[in-house]
Amino acid sequence: MARRETWLNGSRDLRVPPDIDLPAIETAGNTRYKLLKLDGLNHLFQHAGMSLPGEHGKITETLAPEALSDIRGWILAQ
Questions:
Q1: Is residue 34 within 8 Å of residue 3, measured between CB atoms?
Q2: pLDDT top residue among 73 and 53
Q3: What DSSP element (H or E) covers 74?
Q4: Four-residue CA torsion sign, 58, 60, 62, 63
Q5: Domain range list for the chain
Q6: Quick check: helix, strand or coil at residue 62?
Q7: CA Rg, the chain, in Å?
Q8: What was the pLDDT predicted at 2?
Q9: Model confidence over 45-70: pLDDT tens digits?
């Protein structure tokens, strides 16, 4: 059985903009996927303001709890 893929993007990701990245994944031909746009998270899946480069060094969060939960759910489903 082919595995189901899950793609995560932070809504404030400036490196891999979700409004470009996620639609491209939808057209790639794989039918076993789930796309998740995590509200308020940056490229590193941290809660961010505007997600500007100078902000990264000020964020103390390692990984947002909701991102960890989604990753955990994917692992358990495999």
A1: no
A2: 73
A3: helix 65-77
A4: negative
A5: 5-77
A6: coil
A7: 14
A8: 57
A9: 999 988 887 888 899 999 999 999 99
